C-alpha cells in the first residue's frame, strides 16, 4: 500500500509544514502525517506571525526558500514594522493573520507539490533497526517505511489540558493527544521532560465596545515578509488596546485556590516571557494594571483573540474578570483560555543538524525541542527537512553558524545550552545582530538555499539584482558631493550642523537625524540619483552607510571566530583520553559531542581552559 519514502514528517504544524515543503522541493519523496487534515498549518495560539527577533526568523526562512513568509503575506490582515524608532538591527516585521486562511494556504501549498503525500492517522511509535530510524507505526496498525523521520509533535505528546480543576487529555482544545512515542524513545535512552504553555479565551467581537478603547493601526505603507513578489496589503484591520484593573485582579485571585499552576497540578515550566495573567498579577503585585491586546482572528469572522490574558483559571472566573475590563463589559466568550502540558526532549540530545545523537536518521523539530512560538518551530522544521533530505541524498549537511542567521543562534543555543523552560528568540541572544538584520536575510542566506536546491532560480536572481543595485548606490553615495550654499539653509532648519566645504552625502547620511528620504528633498542632485533605485536598494544602501563602522566591526569579529567554528573534532573522539579536562567539561562534551571547537566553547560548563587543553591535544 505504501512505498518507501525518503522523508516521513510526523505532524503538520508550522515545523512539519516547513520540513515537508523543504524536503519535497529538494527532490525527496515525502509523506506528511497529521491527525486531522483540516488542521494543517493551524495557528494554535495567537493569529500573528513575526515580532521582535521572530520577524527576522520568518525573513530568514523565506530567504532560504521556505514558505512561512509567503503564506503570511498572502493571508495577513495587518502589518507593522516594530522598533522603527531604534537602530536597523532592531527592526522587526510582524503581521496579524487570518487564522483560517493561513491554514488553508499552507494546505494548498503542500497539496500543489507532487512530491508530498498525506496520511491522516496518529503515529504511535518509530521503527528502529540497527540504531537507525527506518519508519513509523500508526494507530491503525500500518508500518510505513522511510529513509528518515522528522518528528514535529508540538504540544500533542501525552498532552493534558487544564482549566481550573478540570483536566483532560488533548493536544489542543477539542483534539486528542498523541501517545506511545515518548515511552518508546525513553527505552532507547532518551531523556524526556514536561513543559507547559497556555492560551487566552476567545470572545465575540460583536460584544466589544471599540469606541472606548485605543485603536492600533497598521503601518501606513505596509511592507511584507517575503523577498518574492507576493501581493501588497492594500487594506488592513485594526487591533485595539485595553488594560486590566484592580477589580479584574481581585476577581482573578478568587480562582487561585483552583489554579492548576498554583496548586501544583502542572509540573512543566511555562514560558518566562509570556506568562499567564494569574502569574503576572502574582509576580508583579505592585502593578495595578496590565496591557491587553484585542486581536481580530480574520477578515470575515467576529472571533477575537485576547492577547495578554493567557490563563488556566476556572472558566467562570475568566468570564467574570473579562467583563470588568474596559470595553469588554458585555463580552461573550467563545471558549475559555487553558493551559496545556506536554512532553519534550531536552535538545542537547541533538546534533546541530537536528538529527538525534542516539538514533540515526531521526530528527526533532519544534516544541519537542523545548521551544515556543510558530517562528521558532518553523525554522527548525525547515532545517530538519533540509538536513534529512541532504542525508538521504548523501550530501553534506547545512549547518548555519551564529554569524549566519538567527536560525543558527537558535539551534546552537538549543543544542549546546539545552533548555528547561520554553525557549523564545530575542535579538539580545544574537551577538551579531547588526549583520543579522531582517532587511538583508536574502543576501545572507539565499545563496545557501539556492546551492542545496531549495531556493529557486528566480529567487536567486532577485537577490543578485538587489545586491548589485545596493552596492552601486553605496558607491554613488560616496562619490556625490554637495556645496554648503546648496544645503546649509535646510540643514539649519533641521537643527543639523552646517557644512563648511563641499561634502559627500554619505557623511551627511551618517547623522542620526538625516535619512535618504530627507536628503532627497534637500537637493535636486540627490533626488535625481535616487530615482534610478527602488526602495529596497535605497534601504540597503542607507543602512550600510549609517552603520558601516559597526557592521565591519561585527564582520571582523565573526571572521576571527570562524577559525574555531571550522576546526572539526573527530566524530568518535574519545574525551576520556584527555586527562586534563575538568570533570564538568568532560561530562558536558561527552553528552553534547560538539562537532567543532567553536561549538565546544559555547557549551555551558566547558571552560576556556578545557577548550585550550582540547586544542593542544588535537595538535593546535
Based on the structure given, which CATH architecture of the domain at 202-338 is correct? Beta Barrel
Our count of helices gives 21
- Overall geometric form: globular
Question: Tell me about the biggest sheet?
Answer: 6 strands, antiparallel
Helix percent reads 25-40%
Find the count of extended strands (DSSP E, 2+ residues). 23
Query: What is the rounded distance between the termini?
Result: 55 Å
Spatial strand sequence of the major β-sheet:
15-16-17-18-14-19
Mean pLDDT: 93
Which consecutive residue ranges, at least 5 long each, have pLDDT under 50?
none
CATH topology of the domain at 202-338: Elongation Factor Tu (Ef-tu), domain 3
Radius of gyration from CA coordinates = 26 Å
CATH class term of the domain at 202-338 = Mainly Beta
**Could you say which structural class the secondary elements and strand pairing correspond to?**
alpha+beta
Q: Percent of residues in beta strands?
A: 15-25%
Question: What does the model show?
Answer:
The protein is of the alpha+beta class and 620 residues long. Among the domains are: 202-338, Elongation Factor Tu (Ef-tu), domain 3, CATH 2.40.30; 462-551, Arc Repressor Mutant, subunit A, CATH 1.10.10.1800; 567-617, GidA associated domain, C-terminal subdomain (DNA polymerase, domain 1, Orthogonal Bundle), CATH 1.10.150. 36% of the residues lie in helices and 17% in strands. It is built from 21 helices and 23 strands. Strands 15-16-17-18-14-19 form a six-stranded antiparallel beta sheet, with no helix packed on it. It has a five-stranded parallel beta sheet with strand order 6-2-1-10-21, with helices on one face. A four-stranded antiparallel beta sheet has the order 12-11-20-13, with no helix packed on it. Helix 11 runs antiparallel to helix 12 (457-479) and helix 15 packs across helix 16 (524-530). The relative contact order is 0.13.
Amino acid at each position: 500500500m505504501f512505498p518507501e519514502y525518503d522523508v516521513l514528517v510526523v505532524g503538520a504544524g508550522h515545523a512539519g509544514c516547513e520540513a515537508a515543503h523543504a524536503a519535497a522541493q529538494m527532490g525527496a519523496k515525502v509523506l506528511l502525517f497529521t491527525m486531522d487534515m483540516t488542521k494543517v498549518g493551524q495557528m494554535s495560539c495567537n493569529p500573528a506571525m513575526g515580532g521582535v527577533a521572530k520577524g527576522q526568523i520568518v525573513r530568514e526562512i523565506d530567504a532560504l526558500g521556505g514558505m512561512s513568509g509567503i503564506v503570511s503575506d498572502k493571508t495577513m490582515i495587518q502589518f507593522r514594522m516594530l522598533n522603527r524608532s531604534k537602530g536597523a538591527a532592531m527592526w522587526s516585521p510582524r503581521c496579524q493573520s487570518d487564522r483560517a486562511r493561513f491554514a488553508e494556504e499552507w494546505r494548498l501549498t503542500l497539496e500543489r507539490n507532487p512530491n508530498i503525500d498525506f496520511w491522516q492517522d496518529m503515529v504511535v511509535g518509530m521503527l528502529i533497526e540497527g540504531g537507525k530510524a527506518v519508519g513509523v507505526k500508526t494507530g491503525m496498525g500500518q508500518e510505513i517505511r522511510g529513509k528518515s523521520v522528522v518528528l514535529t509533535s508540538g504540544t500533542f505528546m501525552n498532552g493534558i489540558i487544564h482549566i481550573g480543576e478540570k483536566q483532560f487529555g488533548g493536544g489542543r482544545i477539542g483534539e486528542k493527544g498523541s501517545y506511545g512515542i515518548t515511552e518508546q524513545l525513553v527505552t532507547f535512552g532518551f531523556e524526556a521532560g514536561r513543559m507547559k504553555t497556555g492560551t487566552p479565551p476567545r470572545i465575540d467581537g460583536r460584544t466589544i465596545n471599540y469606541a472606548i478603547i485605543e485603536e492600533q493601526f497598521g503601518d501606513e505603507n505596509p511592507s511584507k515578509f517575503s523577498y518574492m513578489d507576493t501581493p501588497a496589503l492594500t487594506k488592513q484591520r485594526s487591533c485595539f488596546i485595553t488594560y486590566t484593573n484592580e477589580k479584574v485582579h481581585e476577581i482573578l485571585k478568587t480562582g487561585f485556590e483552583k489554579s492548576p499552576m498554583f496548586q501544583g497540578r502542572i509540573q512543566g515550566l511555562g514560558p518566562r516571557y509570556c506568562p499567564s495573567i494569574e502569574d503576572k498579577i502574582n509576580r508583579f503585585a505592585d502593578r495595578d494594571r496590565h496591557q491587553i491586546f484585542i486581536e481580530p482572528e480574520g477578515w470575515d469572522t467576529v472571533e477575537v483573540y485576547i492577547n495578554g490574558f493567557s490563563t488556566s483559571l476556572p472558566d467562570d472566573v475568566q468570564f467574570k474578570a473579562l467583563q470588568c475590563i474596559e470595553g469588554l463589559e458585555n463580552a461573550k466568550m467563545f471558549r475559555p483560555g487553558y493551559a496545556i502540558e506536554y512532553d519534550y526532549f531536552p535538545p542537547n540530545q541533538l546534533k546541530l543538524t537536528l538529527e538525534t545523537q542516539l538514533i540515526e536518521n531521526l530528527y526533532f523539530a519544534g516544541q519537542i525541542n523545548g521551544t515556543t512560538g510558530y517562528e521558532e518551530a518553523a525554522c527548525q522544521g525547515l532545517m530538519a527537512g533540509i538536513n534529512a533530505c541532504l542525508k538521504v541524498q548523501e550530501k553534506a549537511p547545512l549547518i548555519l553558524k551564529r554569524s549566519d542567521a538567527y536560525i543558527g543562534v537558535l539551534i546552537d543555543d538549543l543544542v549546546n545550552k539545552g533548555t528547561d523552560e520554553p525557549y523564545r528568540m530575542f535579538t539580545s541572544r544574537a551577538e551579531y545582530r547588526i549583520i543579522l538584520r531582517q532587511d538583508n536575510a536574502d543576501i545572507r542566506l539565499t545563496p545557501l538555499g539556492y546551492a542545496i536546491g531549495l531556493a529557486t532560480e528566480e529567487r536567486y536572481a532577485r537577490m543578485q539584482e538587489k545586491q548589485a543595485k545596493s552596492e552601486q548606490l553605496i558607491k554613488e553615495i560616496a562619490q556625490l558631493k554637495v556645496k554648503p550654499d546648496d544645503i546649509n539653509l535646510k540643514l539649519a532648519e533641521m537643527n543639523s550642523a552646517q557644512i563648511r566645504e563641499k561634502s559627500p552625502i554619505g557623511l551627511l547620511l551618517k547623522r542620526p537625524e538625516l535619512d535618504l528620504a530627507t536628503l532627497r528633498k534637500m537637493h535636486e542632485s540627490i533626488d535625481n540619483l535616487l530615482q534610478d533605485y527602488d526602495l529596497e536598494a535605497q534601504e540597503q544602501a542607507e543602512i550600510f552607510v549609517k552603520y558601516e563602522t559597526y557592521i565591519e566591526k561585527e564582520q571582523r569579529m565573526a571572521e576571527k571566530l570562524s577559525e574555531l567554528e571550522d576546526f572539526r573534532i573527530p566524530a568518535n573522539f574519545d574525551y576520556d583520553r584527555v586527562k586534563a579536562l575538568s570533570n564538568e567539561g568532560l561530562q558536558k562534551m561527552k553528552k553534547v559531542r560538539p562537532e567543532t571547537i567553536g561549538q565546544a566553547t559555547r557549551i555551558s560548563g566547558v571552560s576556556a581552559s578545557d577548550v585550550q587543553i582540547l586544542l593542544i591535544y588535537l595538535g593546535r
